[in-house]
């Protein structure tokens, strides 16, 4: 595979844009790729995404490499933030005014608002897997810290004139010294290798590295220059005509799966070649397939060199069905990202027939179930002739009242062996329902309708008193067990319902009601009541039970009276 051409992405503060240019010729690819920004400064990339520091607006935006906006306000940042670096899924952002470095992940979650503090005008940052290098423009010092924020050497390099952006290459650190208009080279331990490696740059600000080439933005000249890491000039004005260029990011186009470009079909046993473009030459690629009858991800190949550009899949013994592909691009640094195929591959078994599916209930004559109870739906699914693929079933319910079909809960992809399906009718509207079953072997479907309908009914409970019995009496001050039976509730409602109990007696011929229990479990079936000593002997009591299932109330009075003696 030929490695795709490099792209340069540059933030121009004067025009508020991100421009894209060809790194080999300097030709404009898209300017502006992104526009409408407010003083854009730092720019980094991760796989197919660009992260842009829109410092004037106080935010980090996320964009696709083709300029599409994914989230223009992914992260809110403080005013004065002016440099950014990326490593292992983490963004590190300097805040010049606050003198800090903050850490975020690419999902906008702040890991540490002041990972490093006590800095003096931090204007540049470079990050490796273990270390962070920060350029303090005010004091001319570069400090070294761990990625957890611990200080390694706060004065690793001193005596610089307005240091700005930096890049790390192995054990070398390349530093933009803006005040002198030069690029310096040091080891990552702070030892000078060559000061003024590149000179006479005007007002250099940003720097990017790819391979053995350095790309430098000249803010006052409006150019991007290209130099080797040994200091040789490749093109002093590779890109020109920019308006205050600052941040810069250089990379090949992200890895892209190019096949299947269109829906494609092959027979089981044939081979299919999956191809890709883009990515770094030092990257490795994992290939995955998702689909088939089980609709799961399977690993096809791991750690393929990016330069291979393709992988041939032998589909012998592969289950027939539709498959999509995903490639995971692993950077040499250990970072990775995923991309998906533009279309699907249909692996066909010409000998396979659609599966068999049937529903045995509700019976044609119709059935009923109390709202809140469980109704079992029985289905049978088997392979069609010539097929050995596993079968999966989808169950649907049709409401005769609304005329709508919906997939039953947790019944979108049931194994054929899972029967019956228990339909919980809690909350289901009363009415008649029928069912349908769809069975698939991965790329063929069969359909069956239920023989009949089931009627979901709202139960009307019955409250029956078993005490007091006719003529029953209890001494005033003694205890009396009020007993009842409740029928007609669904199983779940019966378990969760409560009763409120009232007692009535007569005073001068007028009824006097009093609540004797505010809430008792309906399923208890009994309540022990202490008979009042006043009015005392000779008083007759009747009772009323109010039943509540959480939604509705029902009431029933006792047919008999209790005499206090």
Written overview of the protein:
It is a single chain. The protein has one helix and 53 strands. The strands form 13 sheets. Strands 35, 38, 39, 40, 42, 43 and 44 form a seven-stranded mixed β-sheet that branches. 1% of the residues lie in helices and 57% in strands. The model has no long low-confidence stretch (mean pLDDT 92). It folds into four domains: 7-251, TolB, C-terminal domain (Neuraminidase, 6 Propeller); 256-348, Immunoglobulin-like (Sandwich), CATH 2.60.40.10; 356-457, Immunoglobulin-like; 462-564, Immunoglobulin-like. The longest helix has 6 residues, at 491-496. With 565 residues, it is an all-beta fold. A hairpin with a 4-residue loop joins strand 13 and strand 14.
Question: How does the SSE layout of this entry go?
Answer:
Elements: E1 7-12, E2 17-22, E3 28-34, E4 40-46, E5 49-54, E6 59-64, E7 69-76, E8 81-87, E9 90-95, E10 100-105, E11 110-116, E12 122-127, E13 131-136, E14 141-146, E15 151-157, E16 163-169, E17 172-177, E18 182-187, E19 192-198, E20 204-210, E21 213-218, E22 223-228, E23 233-239, E24 245-251, E25 256-257, E26 264-267, E27 271-277, E28 284-291, E29 296-305, E30 310-314, E31 321-330, E32 336-340, E33 345-348, E34 356-359, E35 367-370, E36 374-377, E37 379-382, E38 392-399, E39 405-407, E40 414-415, E41 421-424, E42 431-440, E43 445-449, E44 454-457, E45 462-465, E46 473-474, E47 479-487, H1 491-496, E48 498-507, E49 510-521, E50 526-530, E51 540-548, E52 553-557, E53 562-564
Parallel strand pairs: 26-33, 35-44, 46-53
Antiparallel strand pairs: 1-2, 1-24, 2-3, 4-5, 5-6, 6-7, 8-9, 9-10, 10-11, 12-13, 13-14, 14-15, 16-17, 17-18, 18-19, 20-21, 21-22, 22-23, 25-27, 27-30, 28-29, 28-31, 31-32, 31-33, 34-37, 36-41, 38-39, 38-40, 38-42, 42-43, 42-44, 45-47, 47-50, 48-49, 48-51, 51-52, 51-53
